[in-house]
Amino acid sequence: ENLLVEELTRECALKGIAVSLPESFTLPGQPAPNRIRVCLGGTNIMSDLEQGLATLRDIFDHPPAPDLSQF
Length: 71
Known about the structure:
Elements: H1 5-14, E1 19-20, E2 37-38, H2 46-61
């Protein structure tokens, strides 16, 4: 699925997963890709990492509905 970065970021935040928007890892003057950055070093408890990755996978498997409130 081709999710919009803003929708994916919002859904991750609602489920307790912090991700970085593309502007934070894009060089100045370059177009931002339709990508996010996920940091895997936020916990040293394996079960927390596994749960976070499972939640992230669930978000990708069941993408959020587009936010049409801006139209």
